[in-house]
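Q: Structure tokens for this one, please.
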Amino acid sequence: MLLKTRVALAASLVASLCGLSASATELVIATVNNGHMIEMEKLSKNFEQANPDIKLKWVTLEEGVLRQRVTTDIATKGGQFDVMTIGMYETPIWGKKGWLKELKADAAYDADDILPAMKNGLSVEGKMYAAPFYGESSMLMYRKDLTDKAGIKFEGRPTWDQVRDAAAKINDPKNGVYGICLRGKPGWGDNMAFLSTMANSYGAQWFDMKWKPQLESKPWKDAVTMYVELLTKYGPPGSSANSFNEILALYNEGKCGMWIDATIAASFITDPKQSKVADKVAFAQGPYAVTQKGANWLWAWALAIPAGTKNADAAQKFINWATSKDYINLVAKNEGWAHVPTGTRKSTYANPEFQKAAVFASAEKAAIDSANPNDSTLPKSPYVGVQFAAIPEFQAIGIAVGQQMSAALAGKSTIDAALKASQVAAEREMKKGGYYK
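A: Here is the predicted structure, written as tokens:
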């Protein structure tokens, strides 16, 4: 009897130790505090139940902070994270440097179902280094009740002059409605993501074919002048501090007549649980001035594995789960088809249930399909990217320019002075990078 008890105890101890070793694989996931990522964290218990040997630890950060943290960590080989949320800017640069592991999806994953624009933007020489969790372009989202009342019609892709005229007509601050809401918070992926597309449409470019910055050109000045005019005359107070989440909250409260931003916003502002104006929203393509080239951005928030992780297999398993068709179906089952992560898979747009639930689906896909990172400026440019230039120096340049644009918007600098300081900062970085003397 005593022997049996000892055997049982030993077996129990072995099982316990096995359990400990199984739970020892902790995946640290760095992600952004956007609605779809918060939903992923909530649903990740399904992954943990199916993979009891993997435990997930979440580090959820505001967009600008996330970019800084993951960039510092991967450049210094810090090894803090096993899975990183990165985008189309970082992926090709870091993939080329060998900082990311190539993704190896299994057959069930169906990588051919990923939209070509997304797959190409996250690949280097045909190898994928990040998988899109959600993809987006940008478009005009507006209150149809207000435009109808003012006799305004947006068809296809409106001009910036039409948008300014509409903003003037529907601006009603006494009743808490502002004509237009746009990003003002400084950051290369924040106010500069928006401003780059606006500048593109005015015929601007970041660099000419000799890599000389072009920030004091007439197209840049025209674009920034229109931007500052729109927000100072018809935007909410404090616009220079507003990013995606701040404007989303304003829009859902019914305070924005128009908003040009990420197509992913459409699923939130058309949700009656989140938005007071869910049934009053309509969509048009991103506005343009002299050209439609580069008038709307292309981006994916994607999941990648840093080369330094010790948990690459577990990380790959998690990424396969989070960016799969099954995950999209799981969100649809829990939250409805109008709330699934979009912009990633052909099968989502082909699904009749999604088409029925997502009133924004056709406008979003048209925007994604029209964005071309290889041909996004009217004059020929040496860089790839719509709202960024995919070179390592761009991050520092975009941050510096973003601060100048925010200062101009807040009235702390003139537009000319802000563009001049931007040009100086850009030239300094490009000379330091060895692009020219």
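A few notes: The domain at 22-135+298-357 is CATH 3.40.190.10 (D-Maltodextrin-Binding Protein; domain 2). The chain is about 45% helix and 10% strand.
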